């Protein structure tokens, strides 16, 4: 399970250090793709394969299913960790998530998300206002 929040920077070549705790669970090779809310989703290979199998079940006759699958898979890239614990984030993914220098890497249960620090702070500010309301709607304590 992935959890926690880490602040990092992307170097001039587009390389990002993945936190050691996340590297252990992600493995040496994993998949990153366009996520929702302008962040990147990062999946360990086993989770990616499970997700791919579920998405394959979507009816290709539905335009919304085709559109989502196209968007999700066309942005996907297999990443490999180098000896320094870094991965090269492809330009198309850096552009999509507005990743320039300062980034936030968060654990979200079965996946990791990579956010531009400014996008993450804006998202948090908005989400903080409705956190308790959301909890009431989706969680039955």
Explain this structure.
The chain has 141 residues and is of the alpha+beta class. The protein has a single domain, classed as Transcriptional regulator MraZ domain (Chemotaxis protein chec). It has helices spanning 20-26, 45-56, 63-74, 91-96, 117-138, and strands spanning 2-9, 15-17, 29-34, 40-44, 77-80, 86-88, 102-109, 111-116. The chain has a six-stranded antiparallel beta sheet with strand order 1-7-8-4-3-5, with helices on both faces. A two-stranded antiparallel sheet has the order 2-6. Strand 7 (102-109) and strand 8 form a beta hairpin. The protein is globular and about 45 Å long. The two termini are 22 Å apart.
Summarize this structure as a short list of keywords or feature phrases.
42% helix; two-stranded antiparallel ribbon; 6-stranded antiparallel beta sheet; globular; Chemotaxis protein chec; alpha+beta; 30% strand; single chain; 5 helices; 141 residues; transcription cis-regulatory region binding
Topology record:
Layout: E1 2-9, E2 15-17, H1 20-26, E3 29-34, E4 40-44, H2 45-56, H3 63-74, E5 77-80, E6 86-88, H4 91-96, E7 102-109, E8 111-116, H5 117-138
Q: Helices and strands, in N-to-C order?
A: EEHEEHHEEHEEH
- The rounded Rg comes to 16 Å
Structural class comes to alpha+beta
- Binned, the helix content reads 40-55%
- Count of DSSP H/I helices: 5
Task: Please write the CATH class name.
Answer: Alpha Beta
How many separate domains? 1
How far is the first residue's CA from the last residue's CA? Answer: 22 Å
Assign the CATH architecture.
3-Layer(aba) Sandwich
GO molecular function: DNA-binding transcription factor activity; transcription cis-regulatory region binding
Pfam family, one: MraZ
Keywords: Cytoplasm, DNA-binding, Repeat, Transcription, Transcription regulation
Protein name: Transcriptional regulator MraZ
């Amino acid at each position: 399970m992935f959890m926690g929040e880490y602040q990092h920077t992307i170097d001039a070549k587009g390389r990002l250090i993945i936190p050691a705790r996340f590297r252990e669970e992600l493995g040496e090779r994993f998949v990153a793709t366009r996520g929702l809310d302008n962040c990147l989703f990062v999946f360990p290979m086993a989770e990616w394969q499970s997700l791919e199998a579920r998405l394959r079940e979507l009816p290709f006759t539905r335009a919304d299913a085709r559109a989502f699958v196209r968007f999700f898979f066309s942005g996907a890239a297999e990443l490999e960790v180098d000896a320094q614990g870094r991965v090269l984030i492809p330009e198309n993914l850096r552009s999509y998530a507005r990743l320039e220098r300062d980034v936030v890497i968060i654990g979200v249960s079965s996946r990791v998300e990579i956010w531009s620090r400014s996008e993450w702070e804006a998202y948090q500010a908005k989400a903080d206002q409705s956190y308790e309301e959301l909890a009431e709607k989706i969680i039955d304590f």
